[in-house]
Amino acid sequence: xxxxxxxxxxxxxxxxxxxxxxxxxxxxxxxxxxxxxxxxxxxxxxxxxxxxxxxxxxxxxxxxxxxxxxxxxxxxxxxxxxxxxxxxxxxxxxxxxxxxxxxxxxxxxxxxxxxxxxxxxxxxxxxxxxxxxxxxxxxxxxxxxxxxxxxxxxxxxxxxxxxxxxxxxxxxxxxxxxxxxxxxxxxxxxxxxxxxxxxxxxxxxxxxxxxxxxxxxxxxxxxxxxxxxxxxxxxxxxxxxxxxxxxxxxxxxxxxxxxxxxxxxxxxxxxxxxx
Length: 275
What we know:
This protein is of the alpha/beta class. It has one domain (6-274): Rossmann fold (3-Layer(aba) Sandwich). Helices cover 54% and strands 14% of the residues. α1 (15-26) crosses α7 and α2 (57-71) packs parallel to α3 (95-123). The protein is globular, with a radius of gyration of 19 Å. The termini are far apart.
C-alpha cells in the first residue's frame, strides 16, 4: 500500500492558506498547518493545525520534530504561504513594522525550510513559496511587502540551485489579487494608515495614499476566488518538471508580460503613476 503523502502549509488558518490546506487534504495528503492566531481554525478537520510562531526558530524546530514523529520523517510538499502586509509611505511606517514584515515574509520561510529539509530529502519533496507579483514590480506605498517577498524569492532561487542535486524542487508562485479575508483586512489597514497620518504627513502623502488605496481595494475586490487560486497552487506544486516560477491570475500574468516587454524607462513611468 502506498505511503500517504505529507504536506506542510504555513498560514493555514486564514486566507488562501485555508483553501490550500483543504485542497491538499481532499487529494489525500496528510496536512500539517500553522496559524499564529489562537482564534483561527481550519474548517477542514483533516488539517492538523498547530499554533506556531514561524518567526520563532525554537518553536518551528519543535513543530518539525512533532511532524517527524507523526509521519516517520517524510515530507512530500512544503508550502510557505504565511505572510503579512505593511502598507504606507516609507517615511511614515515604523521601522519596527518593516522589520516585522521581513521576519514573517523573508526569514520565517528560511527557518521553516531549514527545519524540514531532512524530511524533504527523505521524500524527494518539493518547496513552494507563495510570493506576490508585486515582488517583481514594487510600487509606492507597498514596497515593504514587495521588498520582503523579493528577498524571500532570492532565497528560494538559491535553494533551488543548492537542493537540485538532493532531489528537492523549489517553485515560486506569484499570485495576483485573490478574494480572501485578506483584502478586507488590507482595506481596513489602509484606512487606519491614512487615519493615523499627522497633519504634516497628510499634506505630504494623503492624496497619493488615498489614490493608492482606491486602486488597491478595487483590484483586490476583483481578484480570483481563493479556492480557485488554491487549486492552481496545488496544480503548480504537483507539476513535473517543477517550474521555477509561476503566476496565478490574469492580472499577475498581464503584469508579468508587461514587465517582460517594457523598457526600464517605461516601467519607471508606470511606477510613478502610483505616486
